[in-house]
Amino acid sequence: MRARKRYAVTAATVLALLATSGGAAATAAPARTSQPAQTITLITGDKVQLSGSTVTGVRPAKGREKIPMFRQVERKHHYVIPADAAGLVTAGKLDRELFDVDALVSYRYDDAHSATLPVIVQHDQKVQPKLVGAQLRRRNVPEIGVTAVREQKSAATAFWNSAKSAGKIWLDSKLKLNDVSDNLNQIGAPTAWKAGYSGTGVTVAVLDGGIDATHPDFAGKITAQQNFTDAASADDTFGHGTHVASIAAGSGAASGGKYSGVAPGAKIAVGKVCDGDSCDTSAILAGMVWAARTVKAKVVNLSLGGDRPRDGAIRWSVR
């Protein structure tokens, strides 16, 4: 069974699952395949070669040749952690997933697919960190002291030296859109309707893949739209966001009321945090703060999940 995490937010609290954990060094697992090697540049600038199910080599960045590298294998995931980063990982100041080379490949953050490494820097809300070799992204969230950047791999060592004391650093990992095709009868929606509950007077913020605002079921219902992705607009090009919004608060106009949402009387605020099936953590964070602080939504829906379990949580209070 694939592990899933669901996310929820109230108008007062933002919850983001961003976990770190330490671990003792271990040797790499034996090779099982002869697949071509993939190169992954770590946040420190050191390069790792991954071939199939084994790490076949580590090439330190210039000036880092004398820094030891710890290799770990956990749940079939390979970690390569430089000694100068290990203490920060153990202290919870550095996301261990930054050194999970299997995860970096699965997110397409390996060198063959990306010249940058997306990270999130958590810092003092009043102090903007000075980061070298990084591109700022438009999903910064100053309300909770979060800056999302793309580290330029060509300047990775310079970025590492400027960022490691700036605050906590997380990998801007990716989540996926969940399947939401279950029938409304399973949650007792018809019973709630008979009791007079329709969602009238409530705004539901749907943080997903955008929306098809031209659909009849959303006529007069969309109160706000915001795009937190790198896509050109908040339009739904994948279908999931429109589906979720219709389940939450669709009027059922296109079907004569037959296929209405759970709360057909509610309004909808649309935050696009996913581009296609891919949802960056920093976009989700920015969308959650927008929903709580700007929209002041009483209900926020995120039908998102991931393949890897996380064992920690950080809470930010939005005032």
Fold and architecture overview:
This protein has two domains: 19-29 and 39-173, no CATH class; 179-302, Peptidase S8/S53 domain (Rossmann fold), CATH 3.40.50.200. The protein has helices at residues 83-90, 101-106, 156-163, 189-194, 240-249, 281-295; strands at 13-16, 38-41, 47-51, 54-59, 69-74, 77-82, 116-122, 134-136, 146-152, 168-171, 174-177, 203-208, 222-227, 267-272, 274-275, 278-280, 299-301, 304-305, 314-317. It is α+β, with helices and mostly antiparallel strands and 319 residues long. The longest helix has 15 residues, at 281-295.
Helix and strand arrangement:
Elements: E1 13-16, E2 38-41, E3 47-51, E4 54-59, E5 69-74, E6 77-82, H1 83-90, H2 101-106, E7 116-122, E8 134-136, E9 146-152, H3 156-163, E10 168-171, E11 174-177, H4 189-194, E12 203-208, E13 222-227, H5 240-249, E14 267-272, E15 274-275, E16 278-280, H6 281-295, E17 299-301, E18 304-305, E19 314-317
Parallel strand pairs: 12-14, 12-17, 13-14
Antiparallel strand pairs: 1-19, 2-3, 3-4, 5-6, 7-9, 7-10, 8-9, 11-16, 11-18, 15-16
